[in-house]
Amino acid sequence: MRVDADLREMRGVLKGQLADWVSSRFPDGTSPQWWLSLFESLEVSASPFREVTPERRTEDLTLAAEAILLAVRLGGVRAPIGAYWMLRIAALALRFDPPIAGLPQVFTPDGSAGWALQQIPLTRERAIEESETRRLEHLNAGEGFYAPVGGAVTLAGDVAFSGLQDVELILSALPWVSSHIKDKEVEGEIRSWLEIQGAL
Fold first, then answer.
1. Are 116 and 188 in contact (CB under 8 A)?
2. Buried b (16+ CB within 10 A) or exposed e, 168-189
3. Which backbone phi and psi does 182 adopt, to 5 degrees?
4. CB of 61 within 8 A of CB of 46?
């Protein structure tokens, strides 16, 4: 698979020069699918079930953090998807005992959660409003609102993701690290979001 060859090359790229490598490798830009495949490959490589050296695991986790931040900065993936993956791999890192030394700050529970909270595109009040609007749309929808059973589905243009869907994606991942948060401000912000999760 092409992403595996790319990953082997990326491991040799000096820290801070990943953007140059991506620009050279993909002069016409990357696809979200490539980034997601990369994140998955790094997640598998760093898994506690893989027989790799501690140094390799730390290197791959460091590369994963850099790749996620870069993908969001370049627009390769939407910020909420980046937040989801940051939390997902930060949760993976928590499975090691003793803890992995030398991890990027953004892969600590506080770092990943703090960064993810910054990617939430709506206020809590706006998320509740949009949730109510969506609920009413579903309640009042006619048959044309739903895809036909067994029929062909035609998508008109680009598929849009609502801010509410992005909020729900990030909130689905925050519990993976929330019990390990030490920063009281971050902890309080997570609690405030999770309190309204059931209302969305």
1. no
2. ebbbebbebbbeebeeeebbeb
3. -110, -30
4. yes
C-alpha 115/C-alpha 111 separation (Å) is: 6
The token pair that represents 177 in the structure block: 């690290």
Tell me whether residue 85 is exposed, middle or buried, using C-beta atoms within 10 angstroms of its C-beta: 0 to 12, 13 to 18, 19 or more: buried
Strands, E assignment, 15-107: none
Q: Is 155 left (phi over 0), alpha (psi -120 to 50) or beta?
A: beta
pTM attached to this predicted model:
0.89
Per-residue pLDDT for the chain (200 aa), expressed as one digit of tens each?
588 999 999 999 988 899 999 999 999 999 999 999 999 999 999 999 999 999 999 999 999 999 999 999 999 999 999 999 999 999 999 999 999 989 999 999 999 999 999 999 999 999 999 999 988 887 887 666 565 676 665 655 554 568 999 999 999 999 999 999 999 999 999 999 999 998 88
Question: Residues for the chain: how many in total?
Answer: 200
Tokens encoding 72: 């969001």
- Cα dihedral 119/7/108/181 (nearest 10): 60
**121-to-116, 117, 167 alpha-carbon distances in Å:** 10, 9, 7
